[in-house]
Amino acid sequence: GESVGLHLPTLSVQEGDNSIINCAYSNSASDYFIWYKQESGKGPQFIIDIRSNMDKRQGQRVTVLLNKTVKHLSLQIAATQPGDSAVYFCAENGGSARQLTFGSGTQLTVLP
Amino acid sequence: DTEVTQTPKHLVMGMTNKKSLKCEQHMGHRAMYWYKQKAKKPPELMFVYSYEKLSINESVPSRFSPECPNSSLLNLHLHALQPEDSALYLCASSHGGGESNQPQHFGDGTRLSIL
């Protein structure tokens, strides 16, 4: 399934399925992007980052895709597990003095 | 477990109290940050310290006063807070001290409630 963080803040997937979380960023001058996972009662946890000179980067079970033309970022999670249930934030360095600004977040729920 | 440690985990204070939030990291990072996060919202940047000097203040009210005693420690002094200041306060650190082009590593925050 897919979720656009700003308009569909929740995403439910079956355990074992792949998840895709989308993010539309705002500043065309941003050149660094991060995905964070935040579990209840915890701080944001770094998942993966990507720079603007790349359009794809892979980690363990996660892939980030960057489309600069339409200012779109996505996070793909393979074989989603119950432990993946959390809020996922994208962030770009498009803020004042090129500091990070965060998207509104997407709540991912993994169903048994 | 996070490599950025924040204390206390929870804090309840009255509007006339003075308290401090503390943050510590031993990763050798030279940039440290304070963020405020309201429920179901993204973190919002408050302050940035770069090489122990305040480099960014995002128009934060003076009732919040940051301090960076050394490269490993970051404090946030609180005085005369308002009920709307109740939130999760997050500390983060990163390599480098300028623009954000390195991952920021977050602590688990201090949950602050103002009575």
Proportion of residues in β-strands of chain B: over 45%
Q: What best-fitting shape of chain A do the alpha-carbon axes yield?
A: globular
Major sheet description of chain A: 6 strands, mixed
Report the average pLDDT across residues of chain B.
94
| Elements of chain A, N to C (H/E) | EEEEEEEEEEE
Number of helices of chain A: 0
Termini separation of chain A comes to 16 Å
Overall SS class of chain B? mainly beta
Fold and architecture overview:
The complex is a heterodimer of chains A (112) and B (115). Helices cover 0% and strands 52% of the residues of chain A. Chain A has 112 residues and is mainly β. In chain A, strands 2, 4, 5, 9, 10 and 11 form a 6-stranded mixed sheet that branches. Chain A has a 5-stranded mixed sheet with strand order 1-3-8-7-6, with no helix packed on it. Chain A is globular, with a radius of gyration of 13 Å. Mean pLDDT of chain A is 91; it is low at 1-8. The model of chain B has no long low-confidence stretch (mean pLDDT 94). Chain B is built from no helices and 11 strands. Chain B is mainly beta and 115 residues long. Chains A and B meet through β4, β5 and β10 of A and β5 and β10 of B.
Short synopsis of the structure:
The complex is a heterodimer of chains A (112) and B (115). Chain A is an all-beta fold and 112 residues long.
Q: Helix and strand layout, with pairings?
A:
The complex is a heterodimer of chains A (112) and B (115).
Chain A (H helix, E strand, L loop, with lengths): L1 E3 L5 E5 L4 E6 L7 E7 L6 E7 L4 E3 L3 E6 L4 E6 L8 E7 L8 E2 L3 E6 L1
Parallel strand pairs in A: 1-3, 2-11
Antiparallel strand pairs in A: 3-8, 4-5, 4-9, 6-7, 7-8, 9-10, 9-11
Chain B lengths: L3 E4 L2 E4 L4 E8 L5 E7 L6 E7 L2 E5 L6 E7 L2 E7 L7 E8 L10 E2 L3 E5 L1
Parallel strand pairs in B: 2-11
Antiparallel strand pairs in B: 1-3, 3-8, 4-5, 4-9, 5-6, 7-8, 9-10, 9-11
